[in-house]
Specification:
This protein has a domain at 85-189: Tetratricopeptide repeat domain (Serine Threonine Protein Phosphatase 5, Tetratricopeptide repeat). Helices cover 61% and strands 0% of the residues. The protein has helices at residues 2-26, 41-44, 85-99, 103-116, 121-133, 137-150, 155-171, 175-189.
Length: 191
């Protein structure tokens, strides 16, 4: 009898421990509906607003479209990157600093632009050009590859990235690879 009670008590303690462990998982992070400084009030309530005044069931103001790959499906428009006003101002300032030979200050200015628009390939391309002008072709190559990765879908930005890659390869004396990169840039520029 005592042994049976001990087994039941042990099972109850195990279940209690599991319940406490699971409840502790639920307490990690802010509670649902907690205010986050970057979240819109409607998003905190679980409502995602449609852009451009679209009606529920549509996205971007267009009527419901067929699933991709089906007849009548409209492919999404490729991205077209542009610099925002703040980043555009910083990139222009960096060009002036670069022309005056102050490459370190130009790099710092472009890094500030990157902190504003870290996923914009145009800012990365500007930083890569600055690195190449400063004589650091290896660093410019890595930055150009990052810009190419981010530019996916924007043929103009991809072409510019391949052009920068070609320039960095030429600076390193890798002429055959540079020629191939220039060819890719040319193919993308006519699209």
């Amino acid at each position: 009898m005592a042994r049976q009670r001990y087994g039941l008590a042990r099972a109850a303690m195990g279940a209690l421990g599991a319940a406490l462990a699971l409840s502790g998982c639920a307490l990690v992070g802010p509670p649902y509906g907690a205010a986050h400084p970057n979240a819109a009030a409607s998003a905190r309530r679980g409502v995602i607003q449609q852009p451009n005044g679209a009606q529920p069931g549509t996205w971007g103001g267009a009527s419901a479209q067929a699933a991709p790959g089906t007849p009548g499906a409209v492919p999404p428009a490729p991205p077209q990157y542009q610099l925002g006003p703040a980043a555009q101002s910083l990139v222009a300032m960096a060009r002036v600093q670069e022309r005056s030979g102050n490459f370190g200050l130009a790099a710092e200015t472009l890094e500030r632009a990157l902190s504003i628009e870290p996923r914009n390939p145009l800012v990365w391309l500007a930083l890569g050009r600055e690195s190449l002008a400063a004589g650091n072709a290896a660093q410019a190559y890595g930055i150009a590859r990052k810009a190419l990765y981010l530019a996916s879908g924007d043929t103009h930005a991809e072409s510019s990235a391949w052009g920068l890659i070609a320039a960095t390869l030429r600076a390193e004396g890798r002429n055959q690879e540079a020629l191939a990169a220039e060819h890719k840039a040319a193919l993308l520029s006519v699209q």
